[in-house]
Specification:
The chain has 408 residues and is α/β, with parallel strands linked by helices. The chain is built from 18 helices and seven strands. Belongs to the transposase mutator family.
């Protein structure tokens, strides 16, 4: 029931937003589709400021919360109503929206929401707001404000998912996170999927100290617990035990191991003087039109290089069934699944935002920034993949009873 209500609320907001966009009306004004989101952010920011103000010294003096007052704030997008928290001693002076202030500096609200998500440091954000709007916001206040995103991040991580995803890419990024006064490498596990309607969606992100099949198993179990019943094709790197972890949770899922990862690992063990010629002989294997032709090309590769690079060719043979799944499908699907380029492209966009950070104070500090960066990136994911109508019909044939088309 809750899931249906959330879905209905989302559809209503989406419909209202589209109508207002077409008519040129503000999305953030009093009756704007996104006004509740803006109000929620401003209210949370003011709550964070009060929490920062009510430090140990204030509380020891007996100062506590004392309800809220409401007022209307005029912005560049219209008028919105906010709730300002109060303290007993009336010593709280909010910095974001000051007492008796009824006009918010033009676009300040969107800049506060956006600057942190673009990777700007607290120092840069404070300086920018001071330069542009002559408003001082301390680092502690900014930290408290961004911490108010944490419930939103946790709710997003736990949100219900669709029952079916057609293609899913699974990969990890690595960052330095502070642990007991030292920086430790942590892995951020990301799952990027294509739903049955061809839309791209980040299904989840998780943090662990290292990348391994055991943790991936817990990630996949979480997806299952959130409503995912079936994945048609999963695209992964060549991590040991990964395919088994996937099929433990989703036994019908076809596994495609990334060809590019296999090539990179192979070249590590090929002498530099041989790499150019070896790659020329290897390309006809994975670029073959059919699986039968690919197997013939692999045999030819083994005849020429098998004695010199026995272990390299042995690796291709051992992983052959997972490396060649894409041969079952047409060119459109092959291009999507034979590498993990889709999720690696997403990771490149994330790293543009996180590259200025030498390390993170906690796992949640890392997740907050990736979550906000993802919110910016997904704005481009409004349309289904190119020629999805045709692709969906083919998937329905390849996966009968699992990929159901909306024909009514």
């Amino acid at each position: 029931m809750k899931r249906e209500e959330e879905s209905l609320e989302y559809e209503q907001m989406k419909k209202k937003a589209l109508e207002q966009l077409r008519s040129g009306k503000s999305l953030y004004g009093k009756d704007g589709a996104f006004a509740p989101l803006l109000k929620s952010f401003l209210d949370a920011a003011l709550e964070a400021e009060l929490e920062s103000h009510l430090d140990e010294a204030e509380r020891s003096s007996g100062n506590r919360r004392n309800g809220k007052t409401s007022k209307n704030i005029r912005t560049s997008d219209g008028t919105i109503s906010i709730s300002t928290p109060r303290d007993r001693n009336s010593s709280f002076e909010p910095e974001l929206i000051r007492k008796r202030e009824t006009i918010l500096a033009e676009s300040l609200e969107s800049k506060i929401i956006g600057m942190y998500g673009l990777g700007m440091s607290f120092r840069d954000i404070s300086k920018h707001i001071k330069d542009m709007y002559d408003t001082d916001i301390s680092h502690s206040t900014l930290s408290a404000i961004t911490d108010k995103i944490i419930p939103e991040v946790k709710e997003w991580q736990s949100r219900p998912l669709d029952e079916l995803y057609t293609i899913v890419w699974l990969d990890a990024m690595h960052y330095k996170v502070k642990e007991e006064h030292r920086m430790v490498a942590h892995a951020v596990y990301n799952i990027l999927g294509i739903d049955r309607h061809g839309h791209k969606e980040l299904l989840g992100m998780y943090v662990s100290q290292s990348e391994g099949a055991n943790f991936w198993l817990s990630v996949l179990t979480d997806l299952q617990n959130r409503g995912v019943k079936d994945i048609l094709i999963a695209c992964i790197d060549n991590l040991n035990g990964f395919p088994q972890a996937i099929n433990t949770v989703f036994p019908q899922t076809e596994i495609q191991t990334c060809i590019v990862h296999q090539i990179r690992n192979s070249l590590k063990y090929v002498a530099s003087k041989d790499q150019k010629v070896f790659m020329k002989d290897l390309k006809p294997v994975y670029q073959a039109e059919t699986l039968e032709l690919a197997e013939l090309r692999l045999e030819q590769l083994e005849e020429k290089w098998g004695k010199k690079y026995e272990k390299v060719l042995e690796s291709w043979r051992n992983n052959w069934s997972k490396l060649t799944t894409y041969f079952q499908y047409d060119t459109t699907i092959r291009k999507l699944i034979y590498t993990t380029n889709t999720i690696e492209g997403f990771h490149r966009q994330i790293r543009k935002v996180t590259k200025t950070k030498g390390g993170f104070t906690s796992d949640m500090a890392l997740l907050k920034l990736i979550y906000l960066a993802h919110n910016n990136i997904k704005q481009k994911w409004t349309m289904p993949l190119s020629n999805w109508a045709t692709t969906a019909q083919k998937l329905a044939i390849w996966f009968p009873g699992r990929m159901i088309l909306d024909l009514m």
